[in-house]
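Interim report to the steering committee. The following record documents the input for RING-type E3 ubiquitin transferase (297 residues).
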Amino acid sequence: MQEAIFVLLLSAVGVFGGGFWFFRNLSRARLLEDTPTSKIRSAAQGFVELYGTVQGEPEAMQKAPLTGTPCAWWRFKIEERTGSGNKREWRTVESEVSGASFLFADGTGTCMIDPRGADVKPQTKQVWKGNQRHPLRVDTLSFIGSFFAGEYRYTEERLHAGEPLYALGHFSSHGAAREGFNEAQEVGSVVREWKQDYPALLRRFDYDRNGELDEQEWTRMRQEASWEAQKRFKSRLRQGDQHRLADPGQLPFVLSSMGEDELAKHYRWHALAGFVAVLGGTGGVIWICLKNGWLLG
């Protein structure tokens, strides 16, 4: 009886888990196919689909932790072989993913991507083995020899500058033209900045050198702060809007080196796997119930 209950529970897990996996991946595939591709220059604020390339100079980029390769984004996993005999298995002992923003462009503009929370599917995935917990580098000899020995297995995935990137997430734009000129706020910001170096402020506006600002000197300082605030606002206007893509919350956040069609196919295959799990679990439930006469009573 205990064995029958265990099989029944296992089959039920297959039904519910497979059902969740099926609907999750099928909905993502449909969302990808139904969302039109936008351009950065004309994209609406909110949930969008973009397609372009990763930007950045190698010398200015972060370095992947395991190989030291310059890249825009990385994810790594270190596994250790544990157990003995036929019971040896790989156990994850360390893993981490990059959270640093990187630049993305599509020919009409640029956008900063905050990858935190994203389902990232990169083009580059490197797997090798070794005898140290933290490898310093990967050279040709160690990479070839790693297939035959090693107590540690390393996996590192990366996004590099110049690679194509499909992005699905929440798009937002910020800039002087959108925000407008708030004189009180802008002038106040300049004054607070100047007050941080109060001796320099006195040298600049304390005309009678008595060690404090009188009403006339204060008025003069406020006028120059207003001119400075307007100057800074015009400079921001010339810079144009700053765009950002980030986690949309309840909707999928996807960054992938695969194109839309290939990515949608990937999600549909995963949905099919979930459907097969549902069928297998349902068959298991029916079989165990028939075998024990639970459907005949």
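The longest helix spans residues 2-34. The committee is asked to note this result when reviewing the revised timeline.
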